[in-house]
Design brief:
50 residues; mainly alpha; 2 helices; elongated
Length: 50
């Protein structure tokens, strides 16, 4: 089993944001929740690197 990397999280975030942008007429409720989680994880990682 592979570990999830920061790059994996960045790719997932980019994919979700692209989907949301491509279809603004949809709510994407669960996807938006996941975006918030991913952004939090990436921010925490960046802060830990300082």
């Amino acid at each position: 089993m592979q570990d999830t990397t920061i790059e994996d999280r960045k790719r997932e975030l980019r994919n979700l944001l692209d989907q949301i942008e491509a279809h603004p007429e949809k709510a994407f409720t669960e996807e938006r929740k996941r975006v918030a989680v991913l952004q939090g994880m990436l921010l925490a990682h960046e802060k830990a690197q300082d």
